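Run log // design_07
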């Protein structure tokens, strides 16, 4: 394994943000504005940091074109994501931290844990493949993050059954709503038709019916039920 470049907390946050933006739009570099929005930082500050990351060989950056991770930058980003998701799993499973609160706690702790300690914790937890939000945990920092054939809840056809496997909501308020409704990983659901003109997504959870707004439905990822022949 190549020697890891010494990084700061800010470096790690930026690289992780660029990685996640690349997951959403694999064919496009992460724009300065998108990074600024994700991190809640002014665009001028983002531009200055991207230049530093580029000079250190962690990203390929061209002004007005955006940023892409180099192999070295990607390895750090995946390592940080692994740390974050293992910590979330421990906090939810062992300390009963609510799903809506665990992301903020893990954001703090991920920088304090070494990769070696994270690996010990992951093994102690039974080598989990997914975190409490349903996001995949890489088995090792350099491993590619597993991708499944998921669709957003908003794209599910009326009458189509599926199982919720991942929540990508970015704030605690959204997660509180989802958990209150029972829309959590592992929950079987079926989308039902809505009245003409309605933008809500109507669902059946067993015999219980609930409605979710379009924006929130786009943060819930499901795996379609396999068709029987």
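design_07 sequence
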């Amino acid at each position: 394994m190549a020697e890891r470049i010494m990084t700061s907390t800010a470096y790690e946050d930026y690289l992780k943000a660029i990685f996640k933006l690349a997951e959403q739009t694999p064919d496009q570099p992460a724009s300065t504005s998108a990074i600024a929005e994700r991190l809640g930082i002014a665009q001028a500050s983002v531009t200055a940091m991207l230049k530093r990351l580029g000079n250190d060989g962690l990203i390929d950056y061209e002004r007005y074109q955006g940023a892409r991770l180099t192999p070295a930058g990607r390895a750090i980003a995946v390592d940080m994501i692994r740390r974050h998701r293992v910590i979330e799993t421990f906090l939810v499973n062992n300390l009963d931290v609510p799903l809506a609160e665990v992301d903020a706690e893990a954001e703090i702790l991920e920088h304090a844990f070494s990769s070696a300690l994270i690996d010990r914790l992951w093994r102690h937890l039974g080598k989990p493949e997914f975190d409490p939000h349903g996001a995949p945990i890489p088995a090792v920092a350099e491993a590619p993050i597993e991708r499944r054939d998921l669709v957003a809840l908003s794209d599910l056809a009326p009458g189509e059954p599926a199982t919720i496997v991942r929540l990508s909501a970015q704030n605690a308020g959204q997660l509180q709503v989802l958990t209150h409704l029972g829309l959590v990983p592992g929950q079987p659901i079926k989308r039902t038709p809505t009245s003409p003109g309605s933008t809500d997504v109507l669902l059946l959870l067993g015999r219980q019916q609930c409605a979710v707004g379009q924006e929130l439905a786009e943060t819930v990822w499901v795996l379609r039920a396999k068709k029987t022949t």
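The longest strand covers residues 161-167.
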